[in-house]
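Readers of this paper often ask what the protein records in our data store actually look like. An entry from our holdings is shown next, in its original layout:
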Amino acid sequence: MLTIRQDQVEAFRQYHLQKFEDEMVVHLQNFAPHHWRVIGEQTGRHVIRLGIDQAKRYGFTNRGPVRFYIEMMFMFGSYFDTDPQYPWTAEALNDPENTDQMIRADRLYDVMTEYSDVVAGPKNEYKFSALRRLNQARAQDYVSAALPLEDCLVAGLKSIYPEKCAYLGEEPLRVLLKKSLELATKYDLSSSEDTALMAALTFFLGHECTRDPLHGWIGRRLEKERFATAAARGADLRAKALLYLRQTLGNDEALA
């Protein structure tokens, strides 16, 4: 009788995981070319492995569902599954009536497609319009000392990306903004420019963007040891965010 040792089983598993990771590297270079060029292969492989681990928490172990989960990370942030601005992802991933991973993956795809149709628009035209408005936005145009900061940020995001805000609804939007203000406080970013920037980053890149390996440039610029003052840290973060917006979130045509 043939006996397969545990170490042989583990070696077989690792071989197929490495093969899948290599295939995802090639796939993501085409799926998200702008983003892939920014993060590079080393970080890209880290994100792939993170995605495999996170997908497993939802019972996604087949190639198709895991691949789709990682694609979602590139579209909505590595921690999209707990992001208050995407409640539909948690509903699909935790649906108690669908224990089969293929059914849940199909459901997640369906709600993602519905969301993209409404929020991104035909050929992403709503998204590109929002990016153009964000590219031209200035904090002083939205923040007023006469109004609570959170109200100003809500109004600002609604004017920049009305389709997304309408789909999300005001209560989840405010939950997200509270998280962004907590992050600003955590990193001693208190100016109107810096708090508005943090709100924009969490809104466009995900609620955990400061620790997301897909956006490691954010975390690096928030390191307190790197800059002598919070003002210098905020100024550098704003400069990098503007560059990232122009080079990664949209193409040249979209931001012209």
Summary: The first helix runs from residue 6 to 31. Residues 4-12, 250-256 have pLDDT under 50 and may be disordered.
